Amino acid sequence: MLQHFKYRSMFDNGQLPGWTISFFYNSKRIEGEYHPDGTITWLSEAPADEEKVKKMIHELMLFHVYD
């Protein structure tokens, strides 16, 4: 489970899509960039079960950003 999930716009004006994300997973802090097409660029080490984590992130972003 992702803990302390945070996201914010990459750009000051907030009109261009793209978000920086951070969260804790298995007691490790993970950071990345979430792009408008749903791809994620990891800024830290990618989680071991990356596909499972990506699915959780997509669900959170759909709920918080695109709702």
UniProtKB/TrEMBL annotation:
Its recorded name reads: YheE family protein
Q: Which organism is it from?
A: Planococcus lenghuensis
Organism taxonomic ancestry? Bacteria, Bacillati, Bacillota, Bacilli, Bacillales
Q: Which domain of life is it from?
A: Bacteria
